[in-house]
Amino acid sequence: MPIKIALINAGSIILKLFKVQNQLENSEKKRSMESKFSFLINLLVLQCLAVVCVSQDFDFFYFVQQWPGSYCDSAKSSCCYPTTGKPAVDFGIHGLWPNYNDGSYPQNCDSGNPFDESKISDLIGNMRKNWPTLACPSGSGETFWSHEWEKHGTCSESVFDQHNYFETTLGLKQQTKLLQALKTAGINPDGSTYSLENIKDAIKEGTGHTPWIECNRDSSGNSQLYQVYLCLDNSGSILIECPVFPRGGKCGPEIEFPSF
Ligand code: 5GP
Ligand code: 5GP
């Protein structure tokens, strides 16, 4: 990781400078050298601080889940079931996205670390069930997972390797149990219309955190529940309140929850 390498390099240079400085302890040139060394050391310390301050990786993650019924009946996109069959009637994972507090985000951070399915072979069954692809043409999921790792996952390499990235995201799906939270509040994917506030309250009650709801439109133009955003701290360990919500995808006060 670049920050760590920069700090280690700077640290070892500082140590070397101190050693050389000790060796010169008894020399006549000590005085003038001392001032040069202290100038160099100050410069290096300032550089270290600049690296730490300026190149912060990211501030938090969005954990995004999609309602398959709304992906599939949307006016914009067609949908194709995965080659492994129709997914369960449940929210599916879209991704885990590093983000900055100002709403911008890094992407495609490391072309040298492409998606490698062999690194997550133990997770494939779980991935197919909980992170199914609905894009056309039908696929088994690799294209979607590869896109998510390469666009977003590679920007979280300071926290996750590929296995951790997917394992953590799968764990968040189990932890948040969105459909259960909604059903408990009497909100079911039956094509009815529900108040956006009730949907948010139900998810807050179930997960402990305020979600951002993104809507899309069905072919008749009705606003419907499409994606749910929750936030994770930048060490990838706990859900937090979102520092900022995404732009766009706004819902009306009443939205449809289509069946799947
Ligand atoms: P859309 O334009 O459909 O909202 O988003 C397209 C894609 O851009 C998303 O699937 C995601 O990869 C990326 N994206 C959109 N908004 C955000 C955001 O707020 N944070 C991050 N990290 N990625 C985003
Ligand atoms: P984003 O950049 O929006 O995170 O990534 C979405 C990309 O993944 C698009 O290229 C989309 O075609 C592909 N994709 C594959 N399967 C799915 C799916 O089930 N849902 C969404 N939203 N995108 C998918």
UniProtKB/TrEMBL annotation:
Q: Name one GO biological process term.
A: RNA catabolic process
Q: Keywords of this protein's UniProt record, alphabetized? A: Disulfide bond, Endonuclease, Hydrolase, Lyase, Nuclease
- Asked if the keyword Lyase belongs to this entry, the reply reads yes
Query: Active site: which residues?
Result: 94, 148, 152
Pfam families in the cross-refs: Ribonuclease_T2
Q: Which InterPro entries match?
A: Ribonuclease_T2_eukaryotic (IPR033697), RNase_T2-like (IPR001568), RNase_T2-like_sf (IPR036430), RNase_T2_His_AS_1 (IPR018188), RNase_T2_His_AS_2 (IPR033130)
| Gene Ontology molecular functions | hydrolase activity; ribonuclease T2 activity; RNA binding
Superkingdom, taxonomy of origin: Eukaryota
A single GO cellular-component term on record: extracellular region
Function according to Swiss-Prot or TrEMBL: May remobilize phosphate, particularly when cells senesce or when phosphate becomes limiting.
Concerning its family, UniProt says:
Belongs to the RNase T2 family.
Stated name of the protein: Intracellular ribonuclease LX
Which species is the source of this protein? Hibiscus syriacus (Rose of Sharon)
Species classification:
Eukaryota, Viridiplantae, Streptophyta, Embryophyta, Tracheophyta
